[in-house]
Design a protein that fits this description.
The chain has 18 helices and 16 strands. It is of the alpha/beta class. The chain has 4 domains: about 130 residues, 3-Layer(aba) Sandwich (Rossmann fold); about 160 residues, P-loop containing nucleotide triphosphate hydrolases (Rossmann fold, 3-Layer(aba) Sandwich), CATH 3.40.50.300; about 80 residues, Helicase, Ruva Protein, domain 3, CATH 1.10.8; about 50 residues, Arc Repressor Mutant, subunit A (Orthogonal Bundle), CATH 1.10.10.60.
Length: about 450
């Protein structure tokens, strides 16, 4: 019996029962779920070493797009989650796209039991072999020492925390570290990317809804506030909340209660609040586009993540950290960074911060054939001249559309890399792709 937990999500009950019957003989825990909309609840109330996810949940639609969207959701929730996509309507292009988007493997139905079991074991064994922490909170500069000292002081408390800093500096990693060091670490950590939630769905996403509250409300649903009850609620990109909705958020935080859409019954909640933004929130207050009383509510403690260009030797420290991470991921044995490569790391201005450095190091590891990363493998991502956007319009929608097209081309259609480059979540990028018909 293998001491791992597996979740199988498929709308075909015959597939579910067949997979469950076979895999429960080999794994400690095997859960099944027919309704894919239950995934958010399952992910926030349980931990799975591996998820087997079907790619099509609507009748007569075999594009696999649903599977990719749910893969995106899962990896936003936990970037390290192992996911296998499986479908009866797959091809080589779909398999390549699945791996590019972060899936651990791609399996066609009907499967051979022995091959399925072998694939699952291999993925779980690779996961166990990697003991290197994936946290990007690596640093020895004074600014990072101050950050971590502050974390040690405030994490054990329930004080509301506001994390400030540019895109890519690691605000989400810091929020998870605060949760990890808190007394709520055994409870759920719920990440709500407010930049990817449309205004019309804001209340439903945060507070939940009851069945029949609106056209698509086919069943009761808990929102992020309820999912975080007892744990930590991380409201990312809080500066993106429209002014019209800020009062509703403030009311919930002040009263530690909320009302589901379509209901009149208040529900109490108890969650540690951490917020983050890359905007100048105080300027927003001056411009009266962000409520001052809401700012006072969320910023009992403020922590600012320093930009990478101001972290000195941390650049090389982080580069070596990522070298270790990607050596393990790609089974390489690269030992050193050349002097020329290190010099380029130092002299580059890093507009994409730690996130960009991570991309640069991944590319360097992939391209290096020897034991030392050479100078010529360095490629600037955000600041490269080849990536300069040629503006043909000053309409905001058109600018956004052109930026997305350019970024997708730069990363050969890789949604994960493009979203990181743009500084938005995968879900937000998918929504914009649909919006502009790309």
């Amino acid at each position: 019996m293998i001491q791992h937990s597996i979740l199988i999500v498929d709308d075909d009950v015959h597939i579910l029962h067949a997979a469950h019957l076979f895999l429960k003989r080999h794994f400690l825990k095997v859960d099944i779920e027919k309704n894919v909309s239950q995934l958010p609840y399952l992910l926030n109330h349980g931990k799975y070493d591996l998820i087997l996810l079907d790619m099509n949940f609507c009748r007569n639609i075999n594009t696999g797009d649903e599977g990719f969207q749910w893969l995106d959701y899962i990896l936003d929730h936990n970037p390290e989650q192992k996911v296998i996509l499986f479908t009866a309507f797959g091809d080589i292009d779909m398999a390549v796209r699945a791996i590019k988007n972060g899936a651990s493997d791609f399996i066609l139905k009907p499967w051979e039991n022995d091959k399925l079991l072998s694939a699952l074991k291999e993925i779980l064994e690779l996961s166990n072999e990697s003991s290197t922490p994936k946290s990007e909170l690596v640093g020895d500069c004074e600014a990072m020492k101050d950050v971590m000292n502050m974390v040690r002081r405030v994490a054990p408390t329930d004080a509301n925390i506001l994390i400030l800093g540019e895109n890519g500096t690691g605000k989400d990693m810091l929020a998870r570290e605060i949760h990890k060091q808190s007394s709520r670490s055994s409870k759920t950590f719920v990440h709500a990317d407010l930049g990817s939630i449309s205004e019309s769905l804001f209340e439903s996403e945060l507070f939940g809804h009851v069945k029949g509250a609106f056209t698509d409300a086919r069943e009761d649903r808990n929102g992020r506030f309820k999912e975080a009850d007892g744990g930590t609620l991380f409201l990312d990109e809080i500066g993106n909340i429209p002014l019209t909705l800020q009062s509703k958020l403030l009311f919930a935080l002040q009263n530690q209660s909320f009302v589901k859409v379509g209901s009149s019954k208040p529900i109490n909640f108890d969650a540690r609040l951490i917020c983050a933004t890359n905007e100048n929130i105080y300027k927003r207050v001056e411009e009266k586009t962000f409520r001052q009383d809401l700012l006072y509510r969320i910023n009992t403690i403020e922590i600012t993540m320093p930009p990478l260009r101001e972290r000195g030797e941390d650049i090389i420290l982080l580069a070596n950290h990522f070298l270790t991470v990607f050596n393990e991921k790609y089974r390489r044995k690269i030992k050193n960074l050349s002097a020329g490569f290190e010099k380029k790391l130092f002299t580059y201005h890093w507009p994409g911060n730690v996130r960009e450095l991570r991309h640069v190091m991944e590319r360097a590891v992939i391209l290096t054939t020897g034991t030392t990363i050479a100078e010529e493998t360095f490629e600037k991502k955000s600041g490269s001249s080849s990536g300069t956007l040629q503006i043909s319009s000053f309409q905001l929608d058109e600018l956004e559309r052109e930026t997305i097209i350019k970024t997708l081309k730069r990363f050969n259609g890789n949604i994960t890399d493009a979203a990181r480059e743009l500084g938005i979540s995968r879900q937000a990028l998918y929504r914009r792709i649909e919006k502009y018909g790309l």
